[in-house]
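User: Hi! Is it possible to get a structure for several chains at once, not just one? Here's what I have:
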Amino acid sequence: MPTTIQLFITCIIDTLYPEIGEAVVRVLERAGVRVEFPAQQTCCGQPAFNAGMRPQARRMAEHTIRVFESAPGPVIVPSGSCAAMIRHEYPELFAGDARWLPRAQALVERTYEFSEFLVDYLGVTDLGAHFPGPITYHSSCHLLRDLGVDRQPRTLLAAVHDAEFVELPHTEECCGFGGLFSLEHPEISAALLDRKIANLETSGSPVVVSCDAGCITNINGGLHRRVMPQRAMHIAEILAKFND
Amino acid sequence: MTDPFHTHIQSALANPNLQIALDANAEKRISARQVAFASLPEELPVMRRRAHTVRADVIANLDHYLEQFINRAQMNGVIVHRVVDATEANRVVLDITQCQSNRTIAKSKSMVSEEIALNPALEAAGYQVVETDLGEYIVQLRGEHPAHIITPAVHLRRSEVGQTFHDKLGIPLTDDIPTLTAVARRVLRQVFLDAGIGISGVNFGVAETGTYCLVTNEGNGRMVTTIPPVHIALMGMERLVPTLDDLALMLYLLPRSATGQKLSVYTSLIHSPRRVGELDGAQERHLIILDNGRTAMRNSPLAEALYCIRCGSCLNACPVFREIGGHAYVSKQGIGSPYPGPIGSVVSAGLFSQQEFGQLARASSLCGACMEACPVEINLPKLLLRVRAGGLNLTPQRANLNIPKPVSLGLRLFTWFAENGWRFTIAQKAAGIGSRLISPFSTWLRLPAFTGWGFSKDMPRPVVDRFRDRWRKSSRSNKLGHEIRIFENTIHSDPLRSFEKIPEGDRPLNSTHATLINSDNRPALITQFAEELTALGGKFYACTEADLGQHIQDLLSESGIHEIHAWDRAFFPPGLLEILVEGGIDIHHTPSPTLKAGLTGCLAGIAETGTLVLPGGPGHPLTASLLPEIHIAVLRSGDILATLPQVFKLGEVREAASISLITGPSRTADIEMTLTIGVHGPREVYVFCLV
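Assistant: Yes, the chains can be modeled jointly so their relative placement is included. Here is the combined structure:
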């Protein structure tokens, strides 16, 4: 029997990037996994949590816990900060709550970020993807520092056929997204984004890969405003480029 | 309605000098820290975790450690004052100063003094307070507050400092950093000598011994604690470590994190006031231990912020601090916090006012660079999020003090949709269709700048055909007979690569320690000591007892020096001072600011850092290694120990009134991070090692 997983597609990918969602499914299925999608899913609650609105964050977190409780197997999240929200902030959100904390903990224990799941859980490194030309990698902050996921996406990208991996200078620096931060402090966010885009130009790569849809939205939004040719892509979009 | 925080952010971003200065700070400090960590005796994560555990234990059992520390300090002869708040702290300082006729106060860096606004209180009472740390002195001359907890003048470029010195001190306009530093040395030297009172901060208090430790590079910390007859030290009540061993651990991490040094030039351990027979050191030592909100913070979700050892590395690592600098961290009233950056955003809200400073924690992308940089592993993003959620009490009422109205309204609405699957899908559809009305011909939305997002970037247009729609369609087509392809046999599983995590503990330790402790490795220790000292600009000579006198005499005559301040003869090889006298050198045993060279012995040397360990005491005054421009030290090779913790085990270190650990010549990097040698202490350090 193949592993059955529950896909938590995240509200950003669902609403803005259905093609990334499709790529995620394609890659997971290619890796031999049976994908299920609980239709009642919405948002993990991170925007409200980061805003300091914990009661609201809790309502979304409770909804998410309920939705996935009835769906067995690993929960795969193709966005680093949403996975980090569940893994690190749900226990904080439900701390001291005898009823909800165990339920949150149960979800925490079966939640994986997409690249982490492929490499660490499935042991997959090469799915036969072809992507000719240079690629570089932006190590999204929550993914890198909260989840400690860095080796996994790099391993997957290293195995992409015909791709020429170049290092992004200062890859570990924030792109300036930070969720609501980019709305509340647009000038600082813009300064950080300028730096990220300058580093992308220095790298010479037309494509920067990320495992976080927030970073992708931020970087692509900045590139589009500046009428620049580079593009941020989700790692699944690269990995899904295989010949059937 | 203008928001002072926002105004400060905008003006910082529009200030090209500031941007250059902040970039230089970030780049130099981050790389220096990384280089310095490579020389730790153990893996950084291991030492960080241990430091975290030590600080967590102190904060959890603070009452116990404070009682122990205060008892010991009092037994050592220190007058201890516990104060509740800023007002009481300032009153205690004024009570002490009023007993002195001398109205000049020499002050070394103390963030607590900034916190309680001590300078204005003293100045209002008619005292002349002079900041003696170069960076602090610069900002004081300019009428500013420090822009960084370690590098007060981080926001200035050399030309601005030159202009300030020209305007305030009347020197010819120059932007030459050594010249500016020399001017500060000259002016402030007189302040040290004239002052009746020295005021300093405290980096660590050691509970088991009642020691308090001060870490400085320029030598001003040593001056204010040694020259004026009265010394007042200010410390936050949380700044304790249980033992000298724990202090050594902190000293491995603090200078490396703060300035990229293995050890700061001067590490002072103070136990007691001047004792009978001693020629220097303050005769009266007061220690003021400040609460000012720390107890409340300790009993709150922000307690972990009290683990902070004030290294400033989170400021250097923070991409937001790099853009806006320390002066931008202001309250709603526009009043600057003494504590900027990530830790400052937590501490300011926790200690001072959630209402006034809670907004600072919102100026973070939560990227976690601060947490990664923190040597005591404080989870700063978690604390910033707790400040956003209310700070000392995680209540919506307190959180709402700082949540902008549009954000609050928007998220309430979003939550109402997102807590229900059906409502959410309707909202998504509405967004997809609505955005087509705004932007019918492009898949991008160009939002106006006031939305925040539109300030610097475009927004992809929400789709109508969402992922969930596509999923449903594919599932539906599946039901119509198309099978979902399951590639059961295509898993490229490589068992060697899966779950391969190298346990941290299994890595070989970089154990200079073990090897050096366990074997008599004398030549290696001497070599290491010499290399470390030389790298810092010190001079190392190995010689025999028989040659020593001639070598020192040659050195003095090359420098044109005919009189020196020397320790008593008992601390040198027999006959040394006699040889010098015969060679025409006048030997003085009492401190004097006119003497150009000081000759001292050493209790020990530390090989891993090139450090000299000098206890003060009768016949061996610390001023001989502080006031002169040239410090000549005689070190027996047998006294070179491998590591700092070994030195802390020496009985003398626990017994002397005060001890100075000297690591190279006096230095500063307060102007543009540019290393400049010879600020307040000696600019030349010669070590004659007897082999």
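Chain B has a mean pLDDT of 91. Chain B has four domains: 1-38+301-392, 77-294, 405-475, 512-690.

User: Great, thank you!
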